Amino acid sequence: MLNSKNLNKKTFDERYNEALTQIPLYTDEWTNFNASDPGITILESLTAFETLQADRIDQVTAPILQNLLRLVGFSPRKGRCARLLLAAEHVKEPVYLPANQQFRIGELCFETNRVALLNTGHLTGIYGRRDGEYFDYSYLCEKEIKVPGFVFGEHPKNGDSVWFCASALPDPGEELILYINVADRYNRNDFPEKGRNTFAEMKWECYTGEGFTEVHVRDCSNCFLMSGEIRIRMPQEAAALYRDMKEPAYVIRATLTRADYDVRPKLTQVQGFLFEVWQKKTLSACTTFHKPGNVRLFSDLAEEGYVHVYAREEKGGSYRRYEYATSPDIQGRYYELTKEGYGMHIYSFDKKRHGYAPEKVKNAIRIVAYTEEMMRSYAIGTVLGYDRQTLKLPVRHVVADSFSIIAERLDEQGRPVYDFVRPEREENGNLYYHLYENEGTICIEDAGDFIGAQLYVAGCAITNGPEGNIRSGSVLTTDHVPSGIQFSNPGVGTGGCFREQIPEVRKRFVDDLYTPYTAVTADDYETIVKHTPQLCIHKVRADMDEEHNRVRIAVKPGTDEEYPHLSEIYRKVIEQELENRRLLTTRIEVIPPVYEPVNVRGTVYVKPVYKNCREQIEQVIREQIDYIHSDKNFGDVLRFNEVFHAIEDLECVEFVYALSLQPQHSNQAKLKETDIYPALNCLLYPGTISLEIDVHVK
């Protein structure tokens, strides 16, 4: 990639003098270097051209760089709001939260996107069922208790199940959200968004009056292998009490239909009855209704009273503005408003009474609610029609998905009509513009039929981007809910970011250049294996056999075993991943790890004040030889002098009198002089340590 500045700082004179000094290198016949020589004239012209060209190349502006990046498939990613799951505690009766209900933690604001229900239901217990016997893991529901639980036991198998018991469950067709915290001990690679789980599959059921009924589930925990949410769509039949347990409860159970786990699921906490919020602050919200007549808007924002109502009176036509009817019999485009408790607004239209009303067309009614802040500055300018007209918005860091504008024009009768336009919607005759969220500007690329139109903000929300990715366990506050209800997040906020800047896009492009998609070198093979989806890979080492066009790859998985072996599942997944990456004629051999103990004998003299330091010395030796748990990799040589100096550097050691290292099996590791050379797939570990500890007396 070209730098934006200072590609070459040489002046014309420097380039010219450099060219003159090189003439004798190419010919000895050119001896006249005076300005009158035609050759010198040509040289001056070429030097001037080179200097001008370098100066122009040097001017790689941001728009040029952005277009170059777009040509290779890298465009700036849009900004996103952080998403958060909230749990409500101490809910004594059902509470409906309106759209745009705000939750705060410090200066950050989170909002609901839609109406949310706080249910009185809560988890009362969690049980594992194996071989007809129940095992109680209800402590996983407690926030204060951090004791992990292997809910499928030591050896998960088909038919084992986990039972989630609750005091109540959502209504038929509604959604129940659980969040599972899992102890990730081995840094498992992410699962692909689509595709079969390699290790396990579950069947989820809800107990109803007709028995256990299968339900649709979106499991982001991938069968309890990673922390994540589980979204359960309740069946059409109402949930019923299950009475064949110690205490009757409403039950949802997950049953293993395939159990090939590499790591036993280890849960640390389970929370249920969650709802979504997003890190943003809505300054104006545009709500669309498809059916005319009475429409119900449940919105916290509309409580401020700054509401504009628009309606269509013909199919595909523009909108007309409707005003609040101050009297029942007033004629014109009017609506009537009634309220039912906090946040619920009912808008009604009566053609017989007022003479106008929305028709039965798509997107018949749009209602825009503003904050007082946005209402003061929602007018953003006039479309003038020149190329790339830029208009400034009243705010920065806009949420792209929330943004739209209203374009006001005059019809043939000179009456105002309104159109709602979202960014980058390219349609014939439409207003086409780009939104630059971070800067808070819009750039009109094509005015279409909207020259002279007045533009106003319709929908607009702002975000703090990555600041919304808050840690788990935070407490959030809100208004207009019964006292005593507490809100917290069991998981971290995710996805919050600003729109990518050009340097960030450039870095992503450069990183992609160094990402191996086709394996050529040993490093390529190791990188691909380390990042194989779904797997826990602890160590990997590749060896290129160019003579036989073969690559041997030693792999140690991260599992609960003391000496992890390479399962057939791991081998097949790795081979499948490499099959699409290898060169056509290259043969691949994935080999399991072998473990070789190293016996240690020696004599160590210690200082008189450190008589009982045997354990400390032996611990240092174990750390030096332990290839299983340390960062040492396959094939790394065990250096005698490193072990020697590690012992000698201890505070308690006066000097090492004698020391020997000996592999137990010479076929896995070779002793050369004093160093040990393990085989490609060999990992060393401490064997027998026989030390004679003497006190050094001066």
Summarize the structure in words.
The protein is of the alpha+beta class and 698 residues long. It has five domains: 1-59, no CATH class; 120-272, Jelly Rolls, CATH 2.60.120; 281-462, no CATH class; 522-591, GMP Synthetase, Chain A, domain 3 (2-Layer Sandwich); 594-695, no CATH class. Helices cover 15% and strands 36% of the residues. The protein is built from ten helices and 41 strands. Strands 18, 19, 20, 21, 22, 23, 24, 25, 27, 28 and 31 form an eleven-stranded mixed β-sheet that branches. Strands 6, 7, 8, 10, 11, 14 and 15 form a seven-stranded antiparallel β-sheet that branches. A hairpin with a 2-residue loop joins strand 3 (102-105) and strand 4. Helix 1 crosses helix 2, helix 3 packs parallel to helix 6 (502-513) and helix 9 (614-625) packs antiparallel against helix 10. The longest helix is centred in the first third of the chain and has 21 residues, at 38-58. 31% of the residues are buried. Residues 1-5 have low confidence and may be disordered.
- Residue stretches low in confidence (pLDDT < 50, at least 5 long) are 1-5
How many individual β-strands? 41
How would you characterize the largest beta sheet?
11 strands, mixed
Rg over CA atoms, rounded to whole Å, is 35 Å
Give average pLDDT, whole number. 90
Strand-residue proportion? 35-45%
* Overall geometry: flat
How many helices? The count is: 10
Instruction: State the share of residues found in helices, binned by percent.
Output: 10-25%
Structural class: alpha+beta
Domain tally? 5
Distance between termini? Answer: 67 Å
